[in-house]
Amino acid sequence: MTITRADAVRLDAADPLAGLRDRFDIPEGVVYLDGNSLGAPPRAVAGALAAFADDWRRDLIGAWGSAGWGGLAARLGTRVARLVGAAEDEVIVTDTTSGNLFKLLVAACRMRPGRSRVLIEAANFPSDLYVAQGVCELLGLELGYLDEGAPLDETVAVVVHSHVDFRTGEIADMAGLTARAHDVGALMLWDLCHSAGAIPVDLTGAGADLAVGCTYKYLNGGPGSPAYAYVAGRLQDRVRQPITGWGGHARRFAMAREFEPAPGTARLQVSQAPVIGMVALDAALDAFEGVTVEALRDKAASLGELFVALAAERLPALRLVSPRDPAARGSQVSFAHPAAERILAEAAERGVVGDFRPPETMRFGFAPLYVRHVDVYEAVERIAAVVPA
Ligand SMILES: Cc1ncc(COP(=O)(O)O)c(C=O)c1O
User: Fold this and answer.
1) Fewest 10 Å CB contacts: which of 79, 358, 362, 377?
2) What is the structure's pLDDT at 182?
3) Which residues of the sequence carry a binding annotation for pyridoxal 5'-phosphate (predicted)?
4) Confidence of residue 389 (pLDDT cuts 50, 70, 90)
5) What pLDDT was estimated at residue 201?
């Protein structure tokens, strides 16, 4: 049965999250399916940045206290914690994903002395691979690739894995893999970049030890917005991260000679917080107010399903590389085609923004807060016009 625009309109009319699009500023006529790379700007951000400039001008250095800048890292951590199934004091917003991965990976290896290997998936995001390679070189450990058959045994200190695969959108079994790592005494470190804000994440339920993630994708914090790090409460006093700057000191302004780690996740900070980025992120997270992660997942699945069904009808030359089962994929659908790069470039000229991952993958992200079903319909129409016959 052919799917029509009226079907998409009906789905939007029944969508409980439909009104949330008004919280975003998306150019007229653009179908933005790249929120899995850089989220769209929430309307509240511009005002928050203007207020930030006023606070700075009015109170100067005093604004660290009067405007609450000093407490932002922890406060933002509590806001992100709700979206990743963590306790409020288990997440801190700081640095970049790669920087946090470096710190937590070194800390994890230190918590498992005598173990000689780190495991990661070869399919993980390149920056994670490079960081893991660098940490292994630094600490004299061996790096094994889980998806290439490297054994998960008692020689492994820590396993690093993405919750959602950045190319295919496939969701990993967080509880299952964490349990396998724990069975051999290894720690488990998750990368949540492609899941937080789009699908439910249950770090506590999975028994996860450590995690990192960015805030510029589905959390819409803006380009280069600060990342976050999670440490399970039971491990927090044992985490010794390697970049011991004054930001992670127990008494930063005592100006003491020796480093003394701050309690809890605060010790993961290195130095001055990127306040501008944090102010923007704080305002961006308001877009999630009153929204449950289950509602986000349902909307994302509905958008993805519509896209897959329409593509099967109108884009038969594209090969689906994401799992067919919506429960097995995150909020993105990927297709392969030998002319993927050119198709995306021509679709972009027609106002449909997706992204390309070599050699031939097209990724389309369905950010549940602002993408509509009619956008999905419109995207397929415009892409069909540029796919070579
Ligand atoms: C899965 C994943 N991990 C890590 C990163 C790197 O993040 P950052 O630039 O914050 O280090 C990205 C960036 O897109 C990513 O998608």
Assistant:
1) 358
2) 98
3) 97-98, 125-128, 191, 194, 216, 246
4) confident
5) 98
Read off the CATH number of the domain in which 257 is found: 3.40.640.10
pLDDT score of 85 more than 90? yes
DSSP-assigned states of every residue in 337-385: -TTHHHHHHHHHHTTEE-EEETTTEEEEE--TTT--HHHHHHHHHHHHT
- Give me the active site residues, please: 125, 191, 216-217, 363
**Cβ–ligand 1 contact at 209 (below 6 Å):** no
Q: Quick check: 388 pLDDT over 90? A: no
* pLDDT beyond 80 at 1: no
Quick one: tokens of 239? 């985490």
- 125 Cβ inside 6 Å of ligand 1: yes
Q: Give the number of other Cβ atoms within 10 Å of residue 148's Cβ.
A: 9
Name the closest-CA residue to atom 14, ligand 1: 37
Determine the distance separating the centroid of ligand 1 and the alpha carbon of 271, expressed in angstroms. Answer: 21
In this structure, what token pair is assigned to residue 78? Answer: 């509590």
Ligand 1 contact, 190 CB (< 6 A):
no
- Phi/psi of residue 10, each to 5°? -60, -40
288, 318, 335: which is the final residue of a domain?
A: 288
Say if CB 202 and CB 192 are below 8 A apart: no
Give distance in angstroms: CA of 216 to centre of ligand 1.
9
CATH of the domain at 332: 3.90.1150.10
Distance, CA 357 to ligand 1 centroid (Å)? Answer: 14
Question: Does residue 52 sit in the same domain as residue 175?
Answer: yes
The pLDDT-based confidence of 123 (bands split at 50, 70, 90) is: very high
